[in-house]
From TrEMBL, chain A:
One of its GO terms (cellular component) is mitochondrial small ribosomal subunit. It comes from the Eukaryota. Residues 235-257 are annotated as: Disordered. This is Small ribosomal subunit protein mS35 mitochondrial conserved domain-containing protein.
TrEMBL record, chain B:
It comes from the Eukaryota. It comes from Glycine soja. Belongs to the mitochondrion-specific ribosomal protein mS33 family. This is Small ribosomal subunit protein mS33. Keywords: Mitochondrion, Ribonucleoprotein, Ribosomal protein. Residues 79-103 are annotated as: Disordered. Pfam families: MRP-S33. GO terms for cellular component: mitochondrion; ribonucleoprotein complex; ribosome. PANTHER family: MITOCHONDRIAL RIBOSOMAL PROTEIN S33, SMALL RIBOSOMAL SUBUNIT PROTEIN MS33. It is found in: Mitochondrion. Residues 84-103 have a biased composition (Basic residues).
């Protein structure tokens, strides 16, 4: 804790002289932010005092041209201030140092530090030629200056090569990216939270220093990530094919259900008065495509014989009309009954054809004298063999 | 020796076997292969007596006996006046139709 406090104070002191600080690692800053604000600094014990001779020597070396001594000088001043023995003289000294400008300052140091800290885009030498510069960058980098058209092309290319088979899956991935904190399962979240709280408590009690706590937390996070990756590897990832996959779009116009499509035509007359019955409402017309009935050749011919002019060869359409009953729903039932009877009656054609073919073959065989002779002889032999045991 | 019949013709004839009876049964037709005279045409018709009667609206006078009696009385009075003037109905055998028959 003392080191952190000292370092923080030193940083603040350095900024007063408008000199850029060296670059920090990414892990150091969040560490400070995570743990410093929650802790109350304990009383600082006695610090060694620095005498005037040593301080004077450091200042003289600095003025002679040694710039590296400046941090140690400020540290020395801070130590003397904390000891509280040289308040008057050190204040005057700090004022003197602040007001005195430095003659020779290396711009390279400032520039190098600045560039290390802040990474800016490349400078454009000729601003009047911005169009060419942009075109060069677009040629060099595919993802430069992205717009909706480019995104659509990329998505289309992905779909074409099978990388993005399902747009819905892509949307799910985007939603996951939007709400990334919900990705991990609750177990892992609870583990991480418990570990974090535990380490925080240990830091507050003073059992652990913030650096060590952060290191332990980092290790724990790495372990959790590795564990999760192992889990993911167990679940086999889908393999993508490089070949072009055609878009298999379902026919959305096909209604659900089985069997042929029945097309009904009815008339509804809206007449004044309460009674909805009208003689024109009675008639019902039912159309069906014969190919969808799944009939064989002979069944189809029998059906055509049965229905006569009700069948339209051009459209392959069978139309059944009924106005036998007074109400439309009764007529619809009658149409359906008629259709079912027609299908049943047409189905008999196969059996008739089989029987006719069998009888035809039998007639041909019976008309053959050689076959009849052999059949007769065989039957005689069978009869004689049966009589022997008797 | 019987004349040979090809299989295709046999099958074609078999497919249409019993088709007329089946059609009649399915669609509710009345089979009449000989073309005899039958009352089916009249039996098939829907009952249309009420619909014909609707053509003439209901006259409410016929429900009132007083009105009908007065009309009958007026008719008799008118007939009496015609008879007195020699304009009544003719006797049997002296009308226009009977005279035409003799001629």
């Amino acid at each position: 804790m003392r080191r952190t406090l000292l370092r923080n104070a030193t940083l603040y002191t350095r900024n007063l002289l408008h000199q850029s600080a060296p670059a920090f690692d990414a892990s150091t800053r969040p560490q400070l932010r995570l743990f410093c604000s929650n802790e109350t600094p304990p009383p600082v014990p006695q610090i060694d005092d620095v005498d005037n001779k040593e301080l004077k020597a450091q200042i003289e070396s600095y003025f002679k041209g040694d710039e590296q001594v400046l941090p140690s000088i400020m540290e020395t001043i801070l130590k003397r201030k904390l000891s509280g023995k040289h308040e008057d003289t050190d204040d005057e000294l700090m004022e003197e140092l602040r007001m005195r400008p430095l003659d020779d300052v290396d711009d390279r140091d400032f520039e190098s530090d600045f560039e290390n800290i802040h990474d800016t885009d490349e400078e454009i030498d000729d601003l009047y030629n911005a169009r060419d510069v942009v075109m060069k960058r677009m040629v060099k980098d595919e993802y430069f200056n992205m717009d909706d058209k480019k995104w659509d092309d990329i998505v289309e290319d992905g779909i074409k090569h099978g990388l993005l088979r399902d747009t819905k899956e892509c949307e799910e991935i985007l939603e996951d990216m939007l709400s990334w904190d919900k990705l991990l399962p609750d177990e892992i979240k609870q583990k991480v939270e418990v570990k974090f709280n535990e380490l925080g408590d240990m830091c507050e009690k003073g059992e652990l220093e913030p650096e060590e706590a952060y290191e332990q937390f980092k290790k724990f996070e790495d372990e959790i990530v590795a564990e999760y990756l192992d889990k993911m590897e167990k679940e086999e990832a889908p393999q993508f094919d490089d070949t072009t996959v055609p878009d298999k779009k379902k026919d959305l116009d096909d209604p659900p259900g089985e069997g042929p499509i029945l097309r009904w035509q009815t008339r509804v007359v809206f007449a004044p008065g309460g009674d909805a019955w009208h003689p024109k409402n009675r008639k019902v017309k039912l159309s069906v495509t014969v190919k969808e009935l799944g009939l064989s050749k002979y069944q189809f011919r029998r059906l055509r014989e049965l229905v006569g002019k009700r069948y339209h060869p051009g459209r392959d359409e069978l139309t059944i009309t009924s106005e036998r009953f007074e109400h439309r729903e009764e007529n619809r039932k009658d149409c359906l009954r008629t259709l079912l009877h027609l299908i049943e009656e047409a189905g008999k054609a196969n059996k008739l054809v089989d029987d006719a073919r069998s009888s035809y073959v039998k007639e041909r065989l019976r008309a053959n004298p050689a076959f009849m002779e052999r059949l007769h002889a065989k039957s005689m032999r069978l009869r004689e063999s049966n009589q022997v045991p008797a | 020796m019987m004349t040979r019949v090809s299989l295709k013709n046999v099958l074609s004839a078999v497919i249409n076997q019993g088709a007329a009876e089946a059609r009649a049964w399915i669609f509710g037709h009345q089979l009449n292969p000989a073309g005899n005279k039958t009352p089916h045409k009249i039996l098939r018709m829907k009952l249309f007596g009420e619909k014909v009667a609707q053509w003439y609206p209901h006259d409410i006078k016929k429900d009132d006996p007083l009105v009908m009696a007065r009309q009958e009385q007026e008719r008799l009075s008118k007939l009496e006046m015609l008879k007195r003037r020699g304009k009544g109905p003719p006797k049997k055998g002296q009308g226009r139709r009977a005279a035409k028959r003799n001629k």
